[in-house]
Predict the 3D structure of the following.
Amino acid sequence: MELYYSFSILIVLASFFAYLNLRFLRLPSTIGIMVIAMLSSIVLVITGNIFPSTLSRFSTLLQDVDFTEVLMGAMLNFLLFAGAIHINLADLREQRWPIMVFSTVSVLISTFAVGLIMYFGLPWLGITMPFILCLLFGALISPTDPIAVLGILKEAKVSKSLETKVAGESLFNDGVAVVIFAVILQLSQGRAVDISMSNIMWLLTKEAGGGFLLGVMLGWGASKAMRRIDDYKVEVLITLSVVMGGYLIAHAMHISGPLTMVAAGIVIGNYGKQTAMSAVTKDYLNKFWELIDDILNAILFLFIGFELLLIPDILHYWKLGLVAILVVLFSRFISIWVPTFIIPFKQKFDRGTIKMLVWGGLRGGVSIALALSVDEGPYKTTIISATYFVVVFSIIVQGLTIGSLARKVLPKSADTEAVDASH
């Protein structure tokens, strides 16, 4: 019952903040809700110095909700599926090589770049953190967040090919990122882990490949079932069961739940819509998942805004936060530039496209959830604080400026497929 009360309060706050944003701030919905939640957190901290019980009650409410479990075990599945059913398979196929490279090789490059720079740079701030924990921070902050990316790209007017690259990368890099994070986390805990190339490749194949294969099977099976009926209520219910039941299967098989949802969403959003749904069903399906997407995004970004309350003395970490932002952006550039420089892609990447890929690599709730899952210790607050600064900067600054940056750095033909080709 306490969980019900907690979510009731969060829903009420999310709707109230969404109204305030629409009425006064008029920012993109997710960003506006997060900004108002952060301002409310600051007000609560100030009020808490006068009325300590007020701050204590609200902090307890947030602590009662396991953010990592709620996001990674529930919300992420719905949000990924909701985003994936709108991905055009033809666009994805056309950009398959950049997406595959950026969601695998780029994550590895960024992880080690962030880890190395933080390890040698933090002592200048008077902070000495073990290399394995710097690497752990690199692993959790390197993957772009699909929820943040998909939410912001709705508002930014960029070319279809560029949008597919950024969105596709964010949808598929979770499987790789989770494996890297899990291995480094176990090493940081002193556990014996086989870090041979063969074992890492097996883990990636099992986690990512298994999740993708399960998702395709679920999407294909659901599409076949929907083809035999014509009732939009039952068909929408089937997609809901794919998300909830699919996650349970993926969890039991120890494979990637997020990739399962992405694959299932893409199959149903393309094969299912073309062969199994009437126009009425398509309309109801799109509206249902769009509503689910908007509601859960509102709650998620509300959470991110209020996570400020769970970091004691966060202002003491502003220098760390500034350094972390610069390091992550630089590492993102390296992780994008190196593959485009070395790998002979079918299309060349001009400077404008590289800038957009770097600036469009937003971080969000997934990074915070992974940071909160780190074991208690003397460096946990440092890791969470650095992550929070990067995520807030990413969503507010990068998210609000990605559209204007696109208009400046991309050619006027950006609305065509030639956007990302140079010469």
About this structure: DSSP finds 18 helices and no strands in the chain.
